[in-house]
Amino acid sequence: MSTPTNREQWQNLADTLITQGEIKADAFIEGEYQASLSGERFDCVSPIDGRVLCQVASCDLEDANIAVKSARAAFDSGVWSELSPVKRKGIMIRFADLLEANKDELALLETLDMGKPIRYSGAVDVVGAARSIRWSGEAIDKIYDEIAPTAHNEIGMITREPVGVVAAIVPWNFPILMACWKLGPALATGNSVILKPSEKSPLTAIRMAQIAIEAGIPKGVLNVLPGFGHTVGKALALHMDVDTLVFTGSTKIAKQLMIYAGESNMKRVWLEAGGKSPNIVFNDAPDLQKAAEAAAAAIAFNQGEVCTAGSRLLVEAGVKDELLGLIAKEMQAWKPGHPLDPATTCGAVVDKQQLDNVLKYIRVGIAEGAELVHGGNQVLTESGGMYVEPTIFSNVENKMTIAKEEIFGPVLSVITFDGMDEAISIGNDSIYGLAAGVWTSNISKAHKTAKALRSGMVWINHYDGGDMTAPFGGYKQSGNGRDKSLHAFDKYTEIKATWIALD
Ligand code: NAD
Ligand code: MN
């Protein structure tokens, strides 16, 4: 089948999947799909139009116990953990190839499940997911261990070993992509993984498990447990036989996971959490039109449901009016539309709860005295889906709620400043420290500002760049550890020092 080229063709494909009951919705344990032990299921509701797509297995403690046992047995058997790196590499690359071969189906599942436009779910999410698996696989037979600079009569070997059983708990905004940012380095280094997708977007994770098996990942090495955070998520986080917990999600839950680790076996906990990233435009920005395009995309792409969203636009007084005018014009390109229409750039918000949350923040912004200059409304209500206009608030003060809290929707706060020191001080005045943008023609100012910002990623004269070669993650309450790049491998390996006496 060739890739659909219009909304009708995508809709036909979706209808076939849904009505023929072809959407996989069970847990995946020990190489097989199975219902949860309790038999409980929950409705998977599409935010596009409110349609129920399928009923997903709702896993709990008992399922977690079985999955951990399966993962532990697979790890101990050595079938994957002791496979030579070059062989693991081959299977990882095949896994990546198969993700790409199934791109249309995975993209469709992602769009139906969480509302993102089909034009991105394949080209950005599935392709990015495959890239993470492939990059990590390709790297694994090129990393060497170390020999310590010891005295002549001894040898100190520093070797890396897989940690064992990894639980990966991921969010709904980039479901398959966030899952694969974890799976790539976790599997490449030889671990067994239990993946817990968000209850709001479980479908691609469930389907992917089967693809992994097809690629040759042995059974038990990747188990997938759909279900809720407070049930199966908590069970994994408290489990005495999970060695490492990796997480992408909110700061609130990230903190809770550290408590669970402390209350159980002190498992390693690596957290990618929220953000409230400053995008700083100086008077001497080299290209205001480019800055406007980037600022609009930074808040409207993926309906603003992006951890690195440029949700605080810090603009120097001299270019404020011109930049705001340009951004308002750019927002025309981000009108909410049907996610299965390849022309749509801004789709549906993930669910009713998230829509209500975004609308609440818009009301709070108005009540606290920010000036609503663009958008602000729920739209396309007749569709039965969850759509909100990209929204811009001007004259925002950094102490206002909409500048402090992560909205995780398309709501931009514009804050004015004078000079570099004030930009840096406002930029850093946040509990978060994930990302930042800096727009200036002055190379010293660019470097000084980038250095002074307490954030894990800084983009100069663009926004939201990056690939597999550079680490992704944040300072402060945006988390610890990094996804992507070889630095990610640190999370999935223990370091062993072995001393050999030669005399
Ligand atoms: P969330 O924290 O509500 O949920 C994330 C995951 O945790 C879900 O799978 C959920 O089921 C699970 N969970 C919830 N409660 C749990 C508990 N008590 N025990 C164990 N697991 C539990 O976050 P979300 O709403 O799914 O995602 C949005 C958040 O993710 C935003 O804050 C966003 O900034 C963040 N995010 C961060 C990055 C990053 O790399 N820094 C990337 C994407 C998203
Ligand atoms: Mn969903």
Automatic annotation (TrEMBL):
CDD domains assigned: ALDH_GABALDH-PuuC
Is the keyword Oxidoreductase in the record?
yes
The Aldehyde dehydrogenase domain sits at: 38-497
**Which Pfam families does its entry note?**
Aldedh (PF00171)
Q: Name one GO molecular function term.
A: aldehyde dehydrogenase [NAD(P)+] activity
Q: Where is the active site?
A: E272
State the superkingdom. Answer: Bacteria
Gene3D superfamilies reported in the protein's UniProt record: Aldehyde Dehydrogenase, Chain A, domain 1 (3.40.605.10), Aldehyde Dehydrogenase, Chain A, domain 2 (3.40.309.10)
What are the UniProt keywords, alphabetically?
A: Oxidoreductase
Q: Which InterPro entries match?
A: Ald_DH/histidinol_DH, Ald_DH_C, Ald_DH_CS_CYS, Ald_DH_CS_GLU, Ald_DH_N, Aldehyde_DH_dom
Establish whether keyword Oxidoreductase is in the entry: yes
Q: Which family does it belong to?
A: Belongs to the aldehyde dehydrogenase family.
Q: What is this protein called?
A: Aldehyde dehydrogenase
Taxonomic source organism: Shewanella hanedai
Q: What is the lineage of its organism?
A: Bacteria, Pseudomonadati, Pseudomonadota, Gammaproteobacteria, Alteromonadales
